[in-house]
């Protein structure tokens, strides 16, 4: 199938299904229509014997590559969440189903993760058979900054990062580059930025006729990986293994170290309630399958918008960051120390019986 819409370009060249996210002014932030278009293309290509693999990239204001995907369209989520638009529910259900399809796709799926790769952009790339990064890659799951949690399977893939780096990434929302992404198992190979377009074109030339051909082609273009390490790995594992958010922040603030001081300051800016929710999410997800994690996250996101009428951390966080842009969210509770277990527990109670869950079909 070939389909060209304003925000998504899907085409077949050679034996490859190519996807270009084409909403550069919004850093290719995903809309419901883009989620639906990508799902439609992947389902069609899955059963098409003439398509042996899929490749996906983003675009920027000057052309292609340079930006992959900054996440979901948070302005839509704020407007829809504030007015009760049912498409907000549809967006999360369909996005998570898409994430599951990518993780379980039977054909090689190659993600060109150049530039910004955040939030929903991680959701459509972490399940790839080949996750390609560059020196321009800026990767993060920054949801705690908007009163949300690392969704799109974030519980699943962050909890499987080495040691307690998953808790660190989830709670702080820190941005990492290609070296850190490779070290944490969130990328498979690094390419020079200049190699992206030639590789994309070569994939479409018809020379790659199988998954093995594609992997060999990528390998010839990749920069040899050194033994990448996270510079603060010792501190991360020490502090982020502690039993609670209060213990983590207390220990960080009790230290005179520069890294500790900076990290504690970041956490103090995040939603106190959602920090506690996120720590619980990551630790629960370590023992969950992808499907069960996505079902848990679907429960959680429903609660983010509807658990406390008129008091959504997510709507307030988006308001402060992207709508009014005053960068002074009024979190409730305002302090990490004021969050109780009774506030956190309801996020992990499903509003649906198992048979009626929106993602009941995921396996």
TrEMBL record:
InterPro entries the UniProt entry points to: ClpP/crotonase-like_dom_sf, ECH_dom, HIBYL-CoA-H
Leader peptide range in chain numbering: none
Keyword check for Chaperone: no
GO BP: any one term: L-valine catabolic process
The UniProt record lists the keyword Hydrolase: yes
Segments passing through the bilayer: none
GO molecular function, one term: 3-hydroxyisobutyryl-CoA hydrolase activity
Protein name, entry field: 3-hydroxyisobutyryl-CoA hydrolase
Organism field: Simplicispira suum
Taxonomy of the source species: Bacteria, Pseudomonadati, Pseudomonadota, Betaproteobacteria, Burkholderiales
């Amino acid at each position: 199938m070939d389909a060209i819409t304003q925000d998504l370009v899907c085409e077949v060249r050679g034996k490859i299904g190519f996807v270009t996210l084409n909403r550069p002014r919004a850093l290719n932030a995903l809309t419901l229509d883009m989620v639906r278009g990508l799902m439609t293309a992947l389902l069609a290509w899955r059963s098409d014997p003439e398509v042996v693999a899929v490749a996906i990239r983003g675009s920027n204001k000057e052309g292609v590559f340079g930006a992959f995907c900054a996440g979901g369209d948070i302005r839509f989520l704020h407007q829809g969440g504030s007015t009760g638009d049912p498409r907000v529910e549809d967006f999360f259900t369909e996005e998570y189903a898409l994430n599951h399809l990518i993780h379980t796709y039977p054909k090689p799926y190659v993600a060109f993760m150049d530039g910004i790769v955040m939030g929903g952009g991680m959701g459509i790339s972490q399940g790839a058979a080949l996750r390609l990064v560059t020196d321009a890659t800026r990767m993060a799951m920054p949801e705690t900054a908007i009163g949300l949690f690392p969704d799109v399977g974030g519980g699943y893939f962050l909890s499987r990062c080495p040691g307690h780096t998953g808790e660190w990434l989830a709670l702080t929302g820190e941005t990492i580059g290609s070296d850190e992404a490779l070290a944490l198992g969130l990328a498979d190979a690094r390419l020079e930025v200049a190699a992206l377009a030639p590789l994309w074109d070569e994939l479409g030339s018809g020379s790659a006729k199988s998954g093995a051909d594609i992997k060999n082609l990528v390998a010839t273009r990749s920069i040899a990986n050194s033994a990448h390490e996270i510079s603060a790995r010792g501190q991360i594992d020490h502090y982020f293994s502690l039993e609670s958010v209060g213990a983590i922040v207390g220990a960080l603030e009790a230290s005179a170290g520069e890294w500790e001081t900076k990290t504690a300051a970041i956490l103090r800016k995040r939603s106190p309630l959602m920090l506690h929710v996120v720590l619980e999410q990551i630790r629960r997800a370590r023992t969950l399958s992808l499907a069960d994690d996505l079902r848990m996250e679907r429960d959680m996101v429903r609660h983010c918008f509807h658990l406390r009428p008129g008091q959504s951390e997510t709507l307030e966080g988006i308001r402060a960051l992207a709508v009014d842009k005053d960068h002074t969210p009024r979190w409730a509770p305002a302090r990490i120390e004021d969050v109780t277990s009774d506030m956190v527990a309801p996020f992990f109670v499903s509003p649906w019986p198992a048979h009626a869950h929106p993602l009941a079909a995921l396996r």
